[in-house]
Structure formats: C-alpha cells, structure tokens
Specification:
Length: 280
C-alpha cells in the first residue's frame, strides 16, 4: 500500500499515450495547488510513454510514483481501480493521459470538496462519502474548441433536482472528479458487474448516504480524438439514438444488473427511472 504524504492523490492510468502525455503532465505540474502526489500505473505501453514518465520523474523528484503489479492490458477501468486500491490518501482524483488540466483545477475542485465536507460532517475526518465533479470544455486533438460545456449534454440541471438520474445517465466524468477517502473505501473493491470506474465510485457514494455534487466550474480541456470522440459524442445523442444502438442496449442491461446485484434496485424500479429521467 502506497501512503501519500500529501493531501491529494492524482491517479493516472497510461497506455500508449505518448502523443498527448507530455502536455497533460505539464498541465499537472502547473497547478496552483501543489498539495498532490501523482501515482501512475502503465498498462503495458509499447510507445515512448514510459520514457516521458521517466523524464518527468527527474524534473519533479519525489512527486511521481510508478505503481506496478506485473500485469498488462487489463483496461482503463481496472487500471484506475488497481491504483485506487494501492494508494492511501485523504482525497483522490482520476487523471486521463490525453486531457489538459486548467491551472486551478485542483484548487477549485478541492474548494468545493471542503465546502461540502464542512456541511456533511462535524468531525475533523469526514466519514461521509463525497464526490465532486466539475464541468469540462470539449476540445479536438489540437485543443481547438468544440463545446464550452460538457455538462449541458449530461443534463446536470435535471440531476440536481432528481439524484436518482445517476442510475440511468453517466453524469459524473472520471477525469473531472475528486472524492474523499470515505467514498474510496465504499468503492473498494469494484463490483464484477461494474464496467466504468467513475460511474461505480459515484454510485457507491450515493447509495452509501453520501454526496454527489456536479458543479459548473470548467476545469479541464476534455480532448476528443479517434475512438475517444465516440465517448463525448454519445452524450450529445438523444435517448432514442442511444437505446437503438447495440452498445446502448448492452449498457442498459449491464446497469440494470449492477443496480440489482449491488444496490437492490429492482428492474421495474430501474425501468421507471429510465422512463422518468432519460426524457427530461
């Protein structure tokens, strides 16, 4: 178990990410809040990813730790969860290898986190799971603007009125979230029925009487390129288009199974949520 001497653990999962990794790491080490340590798990890269990481470890001694487990090609979700299981910290942030963090990302997100904890907990150490997610600026591979706000496509205003929407829409984006130790403990280990690490952490926080807060501050350039474009594009599609696709049907039944197995949400109840909140 890695013990973080700083307050925030930034968890970075890499795999053949050399094309954009240098710019991402530069944005990390330009943060106005420096109270973080970067933990990296590589999933078997064959490009220059490891060389780039080694160069930044020399530039920032004592600020980066490579977490190895001798296994490769386990996928992004499992790679992030293995990092989460391996690091003990007060707060955690997931970091994708191809985005760009605005200089105040950690500072702003932590500010929202501490504000919620001060309201949710009276003790010095908060035992209530808290997840905070910020808005994202969607950009292309050159960081030219595609869309000012990703939250608009995620229907965040509906989520704020109806938290149950978390059961049917992916409203928390991993690279934009921070969560506390209580949320981390609630999410360990990851269910075999879960498919996405960020979605799983958010659901665990909500179903363990915690807080899931999505704020409007834009703190990150969410880079879209290649297959990644499909990820952001899916959020902008209507519910009919998503449901009609093969991946949409697969995701529907996967979520229904996860909610039933782990949180006791019956299929009729899940279907009711889908009808109520997918159309708003």
């Amino acid at each position: 178990m890695e013990r973080n001497s700083r307050q925030i653990a930034v968890l970075l999962a890499t795999y053949n990410g050399a094309r954009f990794l240098k710019e991402q790491l530069e944005s990390l080490f330009r943060q106005t809040c420096e109270d973080f340590h970067l933990y990296v798990r590589d999933d078997g890269s064959t490009d220059s990813t490891l060389k780039i990481l080694a160069s930044f470890m020399q530039l920032h001694p004592g600020r980066i730790t490579l977490v190895g487990d001798g296994e490769a090609h386990c996928g992004a979700a499992q790679s992030f969860m293995r990092l989460l299981e391996s690091v003990e910290s007060d707060y955690y942030m997931f970091c994708d290898q191809d985005d760009f963090w605005h200089a105040t990302k950690i500072e702003k997100t932590a500010g929202h986190m501490w504000d919620i904890e001060s309201r949710a907990c009276r003790d010095k150490v908060c035992t209530t799971p808290v997840v905070v997610s910020t808005d994202l600026r969607v950009v292309d591979e050159n960081r030219d603007l595609i869309k000012e706000s990703f939250n608009a496509d995620l229907k965040i205003d509906v989520f704020r009125k109806h938290p149950q929407m978390l059961c049917v829409r992916h409203v928390v984006t991993g690279c934009a979230m921070m969560f506390n130790r209580a949320a981390r403990d609630a999410a360990i280990p990851m269910s075999p029925y879960a498919t996405m690490h960020d979605e799983w952490v958010a659901l665990c926080a909500q179903f363990h009487s915690g807080w899931v807060s999505v704020v409007d501050d834009v703190t990150i350039d969410y880079r879209q390129h290649g297959s990644n474009t499909l990820g952001a594009g899916a959020a902008a599609k209507g519910v009919v288009s998503r449901a009609a696709s093969g991946s949409g049907r697969k995701a529907f039944f996967a979520m229904a199974r996860l909610l039933r197995k782990e949180f006791g949400v019956s299929f009729p109840r899940f279907l009711l949520y889908k009808i109520l909140y997918s159309w708003l």
